[in-house]
Amino acid sequence: MRTVKEVSELTGVSARTLHYYDEIGLLPPTDKSEAGYRLYDDKALETLQQILFFREFDIPLKEIKTIMESPSLDRNRILQMQREMLVSKKERMERLIASVDDILKGDNRMDFTVFTKIEIEKMFQFMFDSMSEEMRRTAIGEFGSIEQWKKHYIEVVSSEDMQKSYAKVVEWYGGKDAYWSALENPISKEVAESYKKREDAIRQKLAEKRDCNLNSFEVKEIVGEYSFVMKQICQMKEEKGLMLAVAQSYRINPCQQAIDEQYGKGAAEFFAQAIEAFYQD
Questions:
Q1: What is the pTM of this model?
Q2: What architecture is the 2-69 domain classified under in CATH?
């Protein structure tokens, strides 16, 4: 057993930090001495090492506590997570080094990579898990196998154009952590269907205001409601970029055609203009 002072000297973690970790239930002491001093065994030190590792990646203490307490995560799974994070960091550092080397050689090519291969594989798994069985069968039938489908997905998402697009998406979410949180904690199917019905109702109301001025209170009120719903559906911190992208999509077939068929001729263009007017600086 080691005292707080001994653990602090061994790890470089201050006594105050160890006390705080105990207070929030992140790292309780193994035992206490008769005098009431905190004592830590080797297992506690191993847990502290894992905590410090996650802190290296700026993961909030609350999230670290959730990870460490998850009944589905054993020691090997935690180590595997840490290994994946290290590999991801290594890939990022290698790209940065390569970019510096290119600049030193006179090649100012910029690296637009947002997600590493490991992260893209993780994104594919999230997409796969959220799909219906029918959609999975269709995709597998098109590519021949899950592995071929996954390979194609990685190639497409790894392209420079897609990485630039994802850079915008990450910005809308307020950062990669927020983006991953939205992927890992999607809204339920029931809630999604409810939002979909509300979105349809909002677009119907907006279609009925086509004769109104784009800057009128009636139109802006409906677009504001539309923006709120989209922000909730996508769990975004900032919805402006998303809504402007939605506005652009209304001008592209077959989306434009589908919207006009459902809400009346010219509805798609009116929706696009109404959204753009709402966010006009």
A1: 0.49
A2: Orthogonal Bundle (1.10)
